[in-house]
Every structure is written in structure tokens, then in C-alpha cells.
Amino acid sequence: MKNIIILLLIVLNLQANTEPCKTDLYFGNGVWNDREDAKNSMDKMFDFLQEENPNYFSMADEDVTYSIKYMHNKPYGYIEDLIETYWQLYTSGQISEGYFTFVARVLNVLDFNFDFQAKIKGIVNNYHLNLTEMYDRYREESFDLNHNVLLVAHSQGNLFGNQLYNTLSTEEKEKFTMVSVGTPASHVLGNTSSSNAPYTTLNSDYLIKSISNSLPSNTDGFGHTFVDSYLASGNFASRANIIQDINDAVNLLGQNSCTQYKHFRWIAYMCSSRQSTELEVDIYGTKDVLSSQISSEELVVSDVRERISLQNGSCPLNGWDYRTGVSQYDKNGCTAYTFDDTSGNYHSLDYIASQTYDNGYTCTQYNMDPGITENLRSMQK
């Protein structure tokens, strides 16, 4: 039973990694929002997406081409959250140290707390802890699964989004972008298709207007709250701006992650721990011209499938299983062989999904999972 559970977890993990074109949309909340508030805003955002773009954000496609999540910016107290916001503005270079110190000292006195240094230290520690927890969740729930990340950030959530972007690896940055709503920041970081920052700030959002060097307002409307001001049913300009920015971001992430490979090649693993008819298969893609150079390829997806024996069928490919000769392909006690032909060349997706090979005794076909076929097809130039 234990071995069956372990095998099931391995298969589920491999299947989870077969969604490189999936986009995870996160809502990032502002100050003073508890977890229930953040979840409610996420739900309202989902309703908004379905109303404004039902073709992409359909109920049927949820958890298939996209998913909806929220990234909670924890509240620590009314005064503490305000000081944390100005700390973020200061560390990003938007306001001076003197400006931050003045605002923080005034807020600290209003909180009837005269141990200023201890107050700041506690706030900064909480901020770094929150940021670390956010990154770990993005990594575990999205980046490690090869998903795209689209953060729709409101208010202080934008400051966390900007800082997060600075901590990402080069590969993670290519799969991350942000749409800003009511942002106190002076800029929007993330993978964008133009120099125009994707943000919406209402002309009468006086909370944002009070923050030094914040991006200028660009849309008619009043108020600051995400649901009742920016997504209000009567605020057509704001809703139109936000959905356009989200649509542009989804399309951009799709272009970067899904349309990139010209040819594919697979490596099949013969594993002593598996049945003789079972294969572990890694599929590699290349963005370059037809080539079998290792430096030009990238691992795209992994799969576990059963061989289909074709003892009475014709074998268009001849030769024995072809050992790669490159130990870096061997993994987990499994020996790697090229599976599509004896030269290990790259081919079109249609070719590798349908060809058989001769292992010296019988013809065997790799029965590619239909979901993997469609994912690879969407990534093929």
C-alpha cells in the first residue's frame, strides 16, 4: 500500500508539471484586510472576470487554463500597517529617509508608543516574514509547477508585488507580471509588453493622492476600495481599464510560455523499480533550428505511460534502444534512452506522438497523454 501511495504521488506530481501554459491569477490585498476580506475581494474579482471576459474566464476552464487565488498581506494593526507602507516606500527609493522617519514618528506617538526603535524593528521583521511567506507560496503553488503568475494587486499589495519581483530568478520573472489597482507606488514591476505601466488609479482616490511620488491618477471615479470603488458596476472606465490590463497580461504570459519551441525530442527511462511495460518520459524542446545539441534544449514536461506492444505491426524505425551516452540524463536509478529513433533527433510534435520504435524484439509505441499533446501543441511555433 505504501508503494502505491508513493507511486500515486509521483504520477500526480508529474501530471501537475504538464501545465506550462496555465496562469495563476492572484489577488494581492491592501492594508487592514484580514484573510476573509482578501478572499471576498478574490471572489468579487472572479465574478468581474467572468462578466467581462467569459470566453477565457469560463467556469469550465477554471483550474484548466487558469486558476484564481489570493496572496494575503497580513494586517498587524492600524498604525503598524501604515508605518510598514511608508517603510516600503522608503526602501524602494520613493521617499527619503527623513520623510519616512517623520511620518513614522508621528504615527508612533499617535499609537502612544514611545519606544520608536523597537516599534520599527518589529514592523520590519514582520514585513520580511510576510514577504518570505508570499514568495514561498508563489514558488510552491505556481513556479515549481511551471505555471504563469499574474498578480492583480490593490493598494499596498502593489508594494509587496514590486518587492517580490526583485527577488525572483530570471526564469521566474519571465513568468510573472502584475496589474496594479489604486497603487501607492511610483512604478509597476513585472513582465510587460510596453513601457506603459498596467495600472488604474481613480482621479478621486484621495488616499493615493496623499502619497508622495505615487503614479498619477488615470481614470474617472471616486474612492479607494477595490470592490466598491474600482470594480463598482457603474464605474465603466475603471472596469474597462482593469480588464484590458488583465487580458493583455494573460496574452503576454501565454506568448512567453506557450509559443516558444520549434521541435521536440523525448528521453525514455527504463527503471528497475517499474514494470517492464511502464516508461518514464521526459520531453525536451528547442527554440533553435533543428538540432540535437544539448545546450539548445529545455525540459518541457514529464510523463509516465504504458508501452503499447505492436508485435504484428510494421516498424518504420530500426535499431536497438539508443543509449544517450550522456549520464546527465540518468535520474533516480533509471537509465536514459532516446525513444523516437536511433539518432535522437528533434522532430515535430505529430511525429513523436505517433512513431514506433524497434527495441530488437518487438515494436513499441509511446501512447502520449492527450492533455500533454495539446499543451505541447500550444507551445509549438
Strand fraction:
15-25%
- Estimate percent helicity: 25-40%
Q: Span from first to last CA? A: 44 Å
Physical arrangement of strands within the biggest beta sheet: 11-12-8-9-10-14-13
Rg, rounded, reads 26 Å
Count, helices? 12
Tell me the number of strands.
Answer: 14
Oligomer: single chain
What is the fold-level CATH name, i.e. the topology of the largest domain?
Rossmann fold
Using the coordinates above, name the CATH class of the largest domain: Alpha Beta
Mean pLDDT comes to: 82
CATH architecture of the largest domain: 3-Layer(aba) Sandwich
Instruction: Write down the overall geometry.
Output: elongated
Q: Tell me about the biggest sheet?
A: 7 strands, antiparallel
SS content category: alpha/beta
Number of structural units classed as domains: 2
Q: Name the CATH homologous superfamily of the largest domain.
A: Alpha/Beta hydrolase fold, catalytic domain
